[in-house]
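Deviation from plan, reported transparently: guanosine-5'-diphosphate complex.
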Amino acid sequence: MAFEGLAERLQGTLNKIRGKGKVSEADVKEMMREVRLALLEADVNFKVVKQFISSVKERAVGQEVLESLTPGQQVIKVVNEELTSLMGGEQSKIAVASKPPTVVMMVGLQGAGKTTTTGKLANHLRKKHNRKPLMVAADIYRPAAIKQLETLGKQLDMPVFSMGDQVSPVEIAKNAMEKAKEEHHDYVLIDTAGRLHVDEELMGELEEIKALTSPDEILLVVDAMTGQDAVNVAESFNERLGITGVVLTKLDGDTRGGAALSIRSVTDTPIKFAGMGEKVDALEPFHPDRMASRILG
Ligand code: GDP
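Because the crystal trials were delayed, the predicted structure below was used instead.
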């Protein structure tokens, strides 16, 4: 499971005060010191940790007493609520355009899981929302990307629009939009090219596709295993493109959790989905409250 180390440590720390009939300010202080260390070790952004600790402290000391909970449980409840709010509070749903098709640009660095996530999202939209998406193979630089998306399309029995790798991504996007309108697709999922790092050329091309397709959603796909780097990548993409949501992939791996806990507050962009494996059905809407409960046990 994701965040195992963090979960274990936080649970251990919180268990010490769970049953306490009385919680002193010193108890809270001691506990918060341990929570702080656990978060830093999980690669959570330094500023985020600081803000988190001060909100919990403020609320945990001198809060209203609920009769149904022991003081220890109340502190844990505060930690849970603050963790939830750190990850965005309410679940944030994928956009729906008032006039179809809804255009979704999938962006991110190479290897983050963009192509896989495009297939997963198409599957999710059909299965859970009864939609008819068109996937668009616009990653012409990674040699296997077009084939990979076509294979996913075959596997899902869902259409993939491609024009090979000799046509510019902007041209592909333009033709795909026409095709989607003709064939009444209600979602267009554009799998754009990634690079090994954020560069000028990549961003310029993405800006062009954005200008041409006026996407309702720009989803940044990031690898949760990369921790703080994922947060930095999200900041760069957000500055240039204005992303509307994040998909955190590989949360099934033994990520330390830093990305999941920092991305929302650093970029002010909601995490919309979590990738939980390599298979096409391993995509889940991201629920901050469930994730917090999972971490706290
Ligand atoms: P792209 O370069 O961003 O298009 O990345 P790919 O979609 O090709 O994914 C890169 C690798 O990550 C592939 O081996 C995928 O199977 C794997 N991958 C993608 N998402 C997940 C996930 O949520 N969990 C796991 N375990 N692997 C994933």
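The chain has a mean pLDDT of 91. We consider this an acceptable substitute for the interim report.
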